[in-house]
Amino acid sequence: MPESVTDEEHTEIERSRRTDEELLSRGSDRASLDVGGAARPREGYGTQAHIWQREKVFELSDVRISYAGVPAVRDVTMNIHKNAITALIGPSGCGKSTLLRSLNRMNDLIPTASLDGTVHYHGEDLYASTVDPVRVRQLIGMVFQKPNPFPKSIYENVAFGPKVLGMKDDLDERVQGALEGAALWDEVKDRLDSNALGMSGGQQQRLCIARALATDPDVILMDEPCSALDPISTGKIEDLMLELRESYSIVIVTHNMQQAARVSDATAFLIVELDEAGKQRTGRIVEYDETEKVFTNPSDSRTEDYVTGKVG
Questions:
Q1: Is residue 247 included in any domain, yes or no?
Q2: What total of structural domains would you count in the chain?
Q3: 199 to each of 153, 195, 206, how far by Cα in Å?
Q4: What is the domain extent for residue 217?
Q5: 223 in a structural domain
Q6: How far is 200 from 194, CA to CA, in rounded Å?
Q7: How far, in whole angstroms, is CA 154 from its chain's centroid?
Q8: Is beta strand 124-125 parallel, antiparallel or unpaired with respect to 249-253?
Q9: Least confident of 124-128, 134-138, 183-187
């Protein structure tokens, strides 16, 4: 069971995200579907309430994700809450990234992928036939493991999504706001016409975060966003995540236990299970709780072994 899909499927995901302007343009012309509550005033958000008392952004029930009929992740039942950073941790191959991509239907881009069970977003079925997946990805943005700026100017990178989605009013202000939100404006405001490929790795990743913010999302998904960065850049991204939590809900996949402990409010630990023949690997959540509890007083001995470094 691949947590990371094949090279061919990964290439298809990247191509769809990076170059499929036609699809995005077509999506912007479709009827506007009421997918969840992203348009609600953000004054209603807040981190004061205990995490489990905050509004549920996602509700997953008996979710199973398969490739070509072979389960990759199974028996996932969990709620993900507003204005929280939720971390998905576990050994390689346990399905963390597969589960993350199911939250904005990125797995739809893989022809062999299928999902059973239900994923509700603000109470609405995310996989209903009437839901436009392009609209879903506008509301639920994705930041990938490796920074993937377009070979365009810094300005055009941030403006790309709003332009193809028809969000062209006050574009300069939108670009500036997104760059400020990604803590990048002061570093690039005098060179917005420069090619984004000339930025440092850490700056490129923050640019990708700004690109996600520019379409006014409700949720930001991050798939190991710091794995390719140096410690200083990693620290800046972590500080940024904590700032963004005030206005957005964040779900992050990470192999860095210290990072999960530092930034997340809740943590789900996944393991890999083998079938009786010892051939088929399937991921499953064995513990999901507040991060402090997961790291200091876990309920499952397998969680303790993993977070303390005994296994993994």
A1: yes
A2: 1
A3: 10, 8, 10
A4: 7-307
A5: yes
A6: 13
A7: 22
A8: unpaired
A9: 134-138
| Arithmetic mean of pLDDT, 131-155 | 93
Q: Is residue 2 part of a domain?
A: no
Beta bridge partners of residue 58, listed in sequence order: 80, 121
Separation between Cα atoms, residue 293 and residue 13, nearest integer Å:
35
What CA–CA distance (Å, rounded) separates 295 from 221?
Answer: 22
| CA 118 vs CA 6, 17, 114, 170: distances in Å | 25, 25, 12, 38
Task: Tell me if 312 is assigned to some domain.
Answer: no
Q: Would you say 252 and 87 are in contact if contact means Cβ atoms under 8 Å apart?
A: yes
Question: SS3 string of the chain?
Answer: CCCCCCHHHHHHHHHHHHHCHHHHHHHHCCCCCCCCCCCCCHHHCCCCCCHHHCCEEEEEEEEEEEECCEEEEEEEEEEEECCCEEEEECCCCCCHHHHHHHCCCHHHHCCCEEEEEEEEECCEECCCCCCCHHHHHHHEEEECCCCCCCCCEHHHHHHHHHHHCCCCCCHHHHHHHHHHHCCCHHHHCCCCCCEHHHCCHHHHHHHHHHHHHCCCCCEEEEECCCCCCCHHHHHHHHHHHHHHCCCCEEEEECCCHHHHHHHCCEEEEEEEEECCCCCCEEEEEEEEEEHHHHHHCCCCHHHHHHHCCCCC
Least confident of 90-99, 105-114, 303-312: 303-312
User: Average per-residue pLDDT in the chain?
Assistant: 85
CATH code of the domain in which 19 resides: 3.40.50.300
Structure tokens at 139: 């509301």
Read off the pLDDT of residues 102-131 as tens digits, 9 standing for 90 and up.
999 999 999 999 999 999 999 999 999 999
CB 206 within 8 A of CB 240: yes
